[in-house]
Amino acid sequence: MMNRLLAAALTAAAGAALAVAASFGALALINATPDQPNTPLVTYETPGQRR
Predict the structure, then answer these.
(1) What are the Cα distances from residue 9, in Å, to 5, 19, 33, 46?
(2) Higher pLDDT among residues 12 and 36, named by residue
(3) Distances (CA, A) of 33 to 24, 36, 38
(4) Rounded to whole angstroms, how far apart are CA atoms 21 and 48?
(5) SS3 annotation, 13-47
(6) C-alpha span between 26 and 32 (Å, rounded)
């Protein structure tokens, strides 16, 4: 009986630790800033400028 209780407690603790680790991983992915190119979406031509 004690072995089953110990196994259940260890399984619950391992599941909780895995859930916490997964939540920290998800938060790290959400908060990661993407690489943004340094090219403007809109450009305005100035007088005398050639393409």
Answers:
(1) 6, 15, 39, 71
(2) 12
(3) 16, 9, 14
(4) 58
(5) HHHHHHHHHHHHHHHHHHHCCCCCCCCCCCCCCCC
(6) 10
Residue with tokens 């190119």: 37
When pLDDT is cut at 50, 70 and 90, the band that residue 43 belongs to is confident
Single-letter code of the amino acid located at 28: A
Q: Which two tokens stand for residue 16?
A: 């909780």
Structure tokens at 48: 């005398």
Tell me how far apart the alpha carbons of residues 21 and 25 are, in angstroms, rounded to a whole number: 6
d(CA 30, CA 10): 30
Q: What's the pTM value of the predicted model, to 2 decimals?
A: 0.57
